[in-house]
Amino acid sequence: MKVVVGSDHAGLQLKLHLKELLGKWGHEVIDVGTDSGESTDYPDWGAAVGNKVIELGDARGLCVCGSGIGISIAANKVHGVRAALVHDSTEARLARQHNDANVLCLGQRTVGEVVAEDALKTFLSTEFEGGRHQKRVGKLNQL
Predict the structure, then answer these.
(1) Count of alpha carbons within 13 angstroms of residue 142, beta-carbon side
(2) Which residues are catalytic?
(3) Which of these CATH numbers, 1.10.720.60, 3.40.50.1110, 3.40.50.300, 3.40.1400.10, describes 2-142?
(4) What is the pLDDT of residues 84-138, one digit of tens each?
(5) Domain locations in the chain as residue ranges
(6) Residues 6 or more apart from 57 whose CB is under 8 A from it?
(7) What residue spans of 38-127 are helical by DSSP H?
(8) pTM
(9) CB 50 within 8 A of CB 105
């Protein structure tokens, strides 16, 4: 699976850690930035991930900033993106099953590496349930 990753400076270390794991897990990783610890703006990276996920069509995204909040707001500004800020594997599973989320957002300052790894693995391996959720996701897509 193609996975587009991006972070600001406050999420860089967690992004790099998860990027390495994604490669080990056999995913094609597309890193849209940042690659520096110098201060940068999370909206730029959330938008970059969102735009690339939509452009590719068959990809999922991973966004990381300090809290995960700002970058998730930015990613959700891209039409067609359903970015979910999660804090554990349960939220990651539900984001996929019920909301067909296509971008996972994490906060480097709010979740540890092990929890982030588990959430990412769950996010990538969980399918959308459709059914009663399809109508609701359709409404999200119309917004």
Answers:
(1) 6
(2) 65, 98
(3) 3.40.1400.10
(4) 999 999 999 999 999 999 999 999 999 999 999 999 999 999 999 999 999 999 9
(5) 2-142
(6) none
(7) 42-56, 69-76, 89-99, 113-125
(8) 0.98
(9) no
